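step: validate -> pass
step: tokenize input -> pass
step: predict -> running
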Amino acid sequence: MNTTVNIAEFKDRFSELLTLVEQGGQVIVCRRNVPLARIEAIRKPVVRPPKASVVGCMKGSVRIHADLSGPCIPDSDWDLLK
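step: predict -> pass
step: emit ->
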């Protein structure tokens, strides 16, 4: 659905006209009845179903094989870093 409005009307009905654009329509904005700009949706919004929960979705997928609070390299290799 195309709608043609002058600038003053566009300012007054901005929110309403953007809703029209979201629904797939076009708005042509005119200055003194001369078309100036066309406003149309960039793309259709993708409606995705809400996810139930992401907390705990990776439970059991990570295994820790060492002490995370200790040093990463053995004590004997510290001399190599000097």
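step: describe -> The two ends are 74 Å apart (CA to CA).
step: cleanup -> pass
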